[in-house]
Request: fold
Amino acid sequence: MLRRKMHDRIKEYLTSDSNKILIVDGARQVGKSFIIRTVGKELFPNFVEINMYDDKKGAKVFAGTGSVDDFYFRLSTVGGSRLKKKNNTLVFLDEIQAYPELLTLLKFLKDDDRYTYIVSGSQLGIALNQTLSKPGGRIEVVRMYPLDFEEFLWANGVGTEAIGQLKLSFENHQSLDETMHRVYLELFRKYLLVGGLPDAVNKFVETNNIVEVRKVHDGILSLYREDAAQYDTENKLKIRRVYDLIPSNLENRKKRVQFNEIEQKRGKSFATYADEFEYLIQSGIAIEVKAISNPRFPLLESTMKNLMKLYLNDVGLLTNLLYRYNIRAVLDDERSINLGSVYESVVASELLAHGYHLYYYDNKNKGEVDFLIDDFDILSAVPLEVKSGKNYSTHRALDKFLSNPDYHIKRAIVLSNEREFRQDGLMLYVPVYFVMFFLPSNPVNVRIE
Reply:
């Protein structure tokens, strides 16, 4: 069984006397249901699971549920004798977004407090927007992502003690020796191929076979496209077109979304496809990075709504689309292969999973910086450049960026394949695998509704 960080968060909730119902949000296939089921069955002798997505497609037992009493009646047809008391009965409502009206009911179920509840959902932000009455004060939403690099290391047998030593090296800006650098860089490159979707990681650990891993990727890509069609039959082709364009956009020099290419029509803008972007981002299958033109802390105040970059939620899906079975393109330092979009994608997913809001710098005259993050300790924006090749010390746009005194930048980071930590003025060069330890002072992946 894969070890996930969310395990401890769910266990903490289920063993507390929380006055809220926990909802684990995130894209499909990231492992939400499995981890809830695992922890729930460990802690509760009576475990009742209802998949609302399956119910809506099948028996529709919970369609049109109008009150707490009505819900209990319908629940009894599924739970039967397993429904006992709050301290020994866990009710798991999976894929709750299938019935958005049930989100409103959660508040009243918690007030009644007959059983212990936990909920999962994808497209939850969309479902909450469709709900007339928000369950204010009674739910806590935690976002779950594919396995991050640390979890991938766990899956591949790297122990807690070894990762602890690695973290100590990061905190002390101490370079690894050549042997250990090669070990972790090779594991990082395998992560680029496999990604963090649990089924793909399990298949890799079981078979060490890229063909089998790619079959898993293909199935998940198909599932994501099918979900888009079911969400919005009228605009499904536009949603799928935006999604399918993500890899090619990332291969462009600017990497941002090209609105005119979505339907091959001029004069299009972000507003034209706002609903399509919302679906992709809220469902968790795409990662949004917002443009910033005036990079002052806090970055949220300077967001440009008309420019954005989109990344796939999992780097394994991207390398599947770009390189298929050609693992040498990623594992070897092939000069003819530009892995820039792949390295940016994995850094984006890693930062997001650790709680960062993601931004990038875009200026016609001064160029582009891959990422900007807020540092709440030094009250400054931090530019972050990602380099996949040998020319890691060449970064003209970043140099121009740092030379502007109006931005009040106190430090910058360059991530690359190079082994050594190195400080050069405001610039800190960091081996790319250490991104696993980047954590914000103010995590943003937990929100209260």
Remarks:
- The mean pLDDT is 90.
